[in-house]
């Protein structure tokens, strides 16, 4: 009996061991799809002597020791084969590795294009220092968990598309030491967690404004062709390297941006002496006195600040009860004036509340609908009108005061008792009484529009926020819109715009768009560029209007507005704008190209009276004529055709072609457009002066200078090295390079 028990025990142990061995092996076996993907991966590599354990058939990466491969259970979790001297190409089966989070193939000799079938759940991909060619795969946005991407030191090239859209997990990106070109795509602005970005030693062009609001702590953009203004935010980036570009002055010294101090407005005003540690050490017996003085000054400052805050609070409380806000003019330099020699941004200094006297004026009570912060904020905004004033100024919005109607409301000529004349845009809102959040949205628009200051933007002079009377007020344009100047059929209208005036208008609009696209931070797209939104003052200087109105989408009658916007912008809209997520800045550039076509041909962007469908859209009609000078001359506006030199005509055609490219990545930035137009305008001005022709109604065209803050963002333009030359070659322009000497 004991022998039988012993035998049963031995059998039980044997079967238990077999069972344990089976489960052990089962857990070690690699998932079949992972094993197949790894076999394909191995089969495309060469010089694989360093890949010990790897095999092309029957492999078991998780069951056996494959060099550089780590598993989680039966799934491949990471691959690290860096620095093994491998060659070959990249596998297209990596997308089957669903559990792979880290892929490091750096420092090898792997060639070909980067596979578009990347591990979908990867958090780290390092392909640096190989021989990859082509561009970054467009499938990259599908890697929603990717945190680190390094493709530096390869042979990658081309223009980056919107490959970084919605990649909110990306923290580190290295594209350095390649041959990428073109402007940075707008999708860079969505990388809200990116803190390290290396773009050095490429051929990138245009502005870096899309990087302005990223939480970067490490930025290297050295040795590219970036241009324009350096965003103020770059000052706080700890590791910043940006030499070897074409930025405007005021920028950097190694890792810091330095803005030169502005001179004092009054040279006789002495600056407050600065007490330094060196001075204290030179006069040790004065240490205690200085310390006491500093403490006294500090306590005095705190006391004064508290007193001012209390006074403002009491005044605002009284304003609530009396249904009016009384603003205070504080004349003390120590309170209202900035320190002498303080540094101001060129855009904000023109509109700083500390530099403007605040006028006392009555405001309509909007208690219960605007927060305390907005009441305080309004002190620095444009003037607030109330409904009764606007009704009087427009004669109860009579037809005689009506200037025109747009997609979001009608425009009236408002004549105030003090003689001021403004253009009033009355906005049609969904509800007469807006909700608080909608009211906030309207005030945000007013605040934004008040901050935009440029000679070619319509200045916002005031606003009204009374129920049913939401309105914006601008400077009145004496010569109406560009649309009416070009296409008016009235017998008593002004004479046709001359060639020189049209060029000046084009240049002014280009400068306005350049300011919004490349100087504002973050970049600002207009979204509805057309001839009706370009107003002309008494000297035919253009002023772009209706910028920022897309911010009001939630308070407008959506269906009606969308239809009117579509109808009013027919012919101006870029082909890709019907797709969500399209780059609106590139859309503005296309619309500007259409505007140039209107100035050149005297034809509307869309004309329903055309005899053929192909002639209704100006771009479709004119594009075939832009590549041949003889054909081009046949579509020029007959009223100016005799005054345009053939070289100037071909130059403008070149600019138009670069703006209306069907693919947005091939459209040049507005800084380059403005630079080309500046040269063309100067050339025409010199020819005009040499001919001895002068007109009292047209100011001279030479020595155009909008001031340093509003010039083109390119510091110079070299046709031989500009990326525009490559674009010009690819699209077959009239002249190979439009160089104005």
Automatic annotation (TrEMBL):
Xref: Gene3D superfamilies: Phosphorylase Kinase, domain 1 (3.30.200.20), Ribonuclease Inhibitor (3.80.10.10), Transferase(Phosphotransferase) domain 1 (1.10.510.10)
Signal peptide: 1-28
InterPro entries, per database record: Kinase-like_dom_sf (IPR011009), Leu-rich_rpt (IPR001611), Leu-rich_rpt_typical-subtyp (IPR003591), LRR_dom_sf (IPR032675), LRR_N_plant-typ (IPR013210), PRK1-6/SRF4-like (IPR046959), Prot_kinase_dom (IPR000719)
A GO term for molecular function: ATP binding
Cellular location(s): Membrane
SUPFAM superfamilies from the UniProt entry: L domain-like, Protein kinase-like (PK-like)
SMART domains (UniProt xref): LRR_TYP, S_TKc
Domain Protein kinase: 397-681
UniProt keywords, alphabetically: Glycoprotein, Leucine-rich repeat, Membrane, Receptor, Repeat, Signal, Transmembrane, Transmembrane helix
Transmembrane segments: 290-316
Keyword Glycoprotein part of the UniProt annotation: yes
Domain of life: Eukaryota
Keyword Membrane set for record: yes
Membrane topology, record value: Single-pass membrane protein
GO CC aspect terms: membrane
Coarse class of the protein's main subcellular location: membrane
Protein's UniProt name: STRUBBELIG-receptor family 7
